[in-house]
Design goal:
alpha+beta; eight-stranded antiparallel β-sheet; eight-stranded mixed β-sheet; elongated
Length: about 350
């Protein structure tokens, strides 16, 4: 797509923000859109041509920090649609700064008769996702595309309240969580191979609920981990050997009903089994979730024959919470009982992580 650029902006690292506005024709003036509700950014020096409005984005000091292009599209599938593009200087985390800009644009679109505003971004564009949530845009899901990993979709309808949407999980402290032996951090795309090996080995498959994911599915899962940290439904973390920096396994938190209750899943690579890595990681994650993330209760379920996982739960301070019959599926189509465990702050012997 054509994009207006300011001379000299090539020296900056940049990111793109794209909004698709569906509704009535957008022929109104946008000169003050960015001034509304932002307090930091404005859209100036407008140049208008047929169906296109281009301008310069200026910061609080009046210095140009990027460009914006508003283009009314036409055609059978794009009627009454305005495409809005940004190119902004990218020298820091601008997610919280861009949110008021997006929010002001969305409000202007609604004032002009739009019914829906949509933003799409790559699965790794966490800053854009953070800005979208800050502008009150709801996460809808991920597109499925034949040759790429898809894109995240955010939208806001004219009747939505539009208040900022908090992230699903709060940010981890710098460097993640660590007890000096293991470290937990949000999963990176380069962890994909380790995640695949963790769930595809014979011991993992023995107690699995479903068939192992393909390498493509695992790669997508690793790429979207940082996005899902903001949007949900799960917070996927990699267990790292603190001594070597190598991935040793995974741990996932999944929000369930009722609010502020999460389900926990974990697994380690064969080379790290029997060394206490899973129990250490589980205790770190549980401590953080109950003390730092606002959860009141964490739960997990284990098949009775999975003695290693039972030992991990007990070592991490979880208490048995009953048995649910025929709850956990086996790969041969049969079902095993589930030994249910739970942890709360009052019952957990909390650790202090570095």
């Amino acid at each position: 797509m054509e994009l207006a650029l300011i001379a000299g902006f090539s020296r900056f690292r940049i990111f793109f923000v794209q909004l698709i506005v569906e509704g009535e024709n957008m022929n109104h003036a946008y000169a003050d859109v960015l001034a509304q509700g932002s307090g930091s950014f404005r859209l100036d020096r407008l140049v208008r041509t047929a169906g296109v409005c281009e301008g310069v984005v200026t910061g609080p000091d009046g210095i140009a920090v990027g460009t914006a292009t508003l283009r009314h599209l036409s055609g059978h599938q794009q009627a009454d649609t305005t495409l809005v593009d940004y190119v902004l200087e990218h020298t820091a985390d601008l997610g919280s700064e861009v949110a008021p800009v997006l929010g002001a644009l969305v409000e202007q679109a609604f004032a002009d008769g739009s019914r829906r505003v949509e933003l799409r971004c790559s699965l790794e564009d966490v800053e854009r996702a953070r800005a979208a949530l800050g502008a009150g845009m709801r996460y809808e899901g991920i597109t499925r595309e034949p040759e790429t990993l898809g894109r995240a979709v955010f939208s806001r309808l004219s009747h939505d309240v539009g208040t900022p949407i908090p992230p699903c999980f709060p940010e981890l402290q710098a460097g993640g969580l660590s007890d000096g032996v293991v470290r937990l951090r949000v999963t990176h795309p380069e962890d994909a191979r380790a995640l695949y090996e963790e769930q595809a080995n014979p011991e993992a498959k023995r107690f699995a609920l479903v068939e192992p994911l393909t390498e493509w599915d695992i790669a997508e899962k690793a790429v979207r981990a940082r996005m899902e940290w903001l949007t949900g439904p799960q917070g996927l973390m990699t267990i790292v050997d603190a001594a070597t920096g190598q991935p040793a396994g995974k741990l996932a938190l999944r929000s369930v009903v009722p609010p502020k209750v999460a389900d926990v899943g974990y697994g380690v690579l064969p080379a790290y089994r029997g060394r206490g890595f899973a129990a250490r990681a589980l205790k770190l994650a549980t401590t953080w979730a109950l003390r730092g993330a606002g959860y009141s209760r964490l739960e997990l379920g284990v098949k009775p024959e999975n003695q290693a996982s039972l030992a991990v739960a007990l070592a991490a301070g979880y208490l048995p919470d009953g048995v649910r019959s025929n709850r956990l599926r086996n790969l041969d189509g049969t079902f095993s009982d589930e030994i249910h465990f739970a942890a709360t702050e009052s019952a957990l012997n909390l650790v202090t992580y570095a």
